[in-house]
Amino acid sequence: MTDFIKPQTQLIDGLLIPKGLFKEDRVRAAMRFQPKPGDVIIVTYPKCGTTWTQYIVWEILNEGATPPQIHEMFGNEIPFLELTGTETVEHIPPPRAFKVHFPFAYTPYSSKCKYIVVVRNPWDCCVSYFFHTKHMVSVNQFEEGTFNDFFECFIRGQVAWNDYFDHLISWFVHKDDPNVLFLTYENMKNNHREAVIQIAHFLGEEYGKKILADEDLLSKILNHTSFVYMKNRIPFFEPLSQEVQEKADPGNLPAPTSENDMENFKKIDFFRKGKIGDWRDHMTSEQKERLDKRMREKIKTFPGIVSLWENMF
Fold first, then answer.
1. Exactly one of 71, 91, 101, 174 is catalytic; which is it?
2. What is the mean pLDDT of each run of 10 residues along the chain (313 residues)?
3. 101 catalytic, yes or no?
4. Degrees (nearest 5) of the Cα angle 117, 40, 120?
């Protein structure tokens, strides 16, 4: 298949980035950002558990408080650096946390920072990324695109944040670094409680000890970061309160600029299914075989990657 619709992207210093909402100067500022000791950076390829992990980290740091809407999370609480730029992080008290989708080479790195890296199997990632790309109309201009179109882009690495396998490999080789917590989305889904405890200990022993000593606190965090709660209770966008807007430059926040944009924002289903194996409902056997072949070619010198999803490959 050579003739297919592509999501709208822009090339910034060798990295494909969505064209809508993402400003070139902010993306470059994120690439050049110098993190401070103690900063926490959440890293994933798109649709591999980024937002879920953001909320787990936020809940641990904020002792199970009622979570903010996604729009506020991205803009003020745990900023999405490629989207907001770096000025917005200055108002955040330590320990500061933010997220990126960058491969390792583009990620603001310091041995004195902590990196929580979450990876997801390529089949489910591809399907989830398709629906996300199609529904983010003002960002990707892909509303006419089909899954077949997106699959051709994905398998070629012609999507935002570049090739899935290159991204995975770039972080897999750092999985045993002392300042990196390397998790799989599948293990987090299969043992939510253990994942929360593991992340808490990684953030600091005081956080781990606190939630282990307080079952009510741990239960709150588990409830607020459950798929059902997040899907039903955390909207992508609602009009921002004055208090929220005053916490950061409103220009740092992704916001609709028209009534049509407002309607599109309200339709965004950030938490679609959160299911392991959803690819079976969307991917043909021929597409699965092609993606399997692509995976074998890309990871042949990194055999340990297969073990991440050995029951699925």
1. 101
2. 84 94 94 96 96 96 93 89 90 92 98 98 95 75 85 96 98 98 96 97 97 97 94 64 48 51 51 72 94 94 91 64
3. yes
4. 15
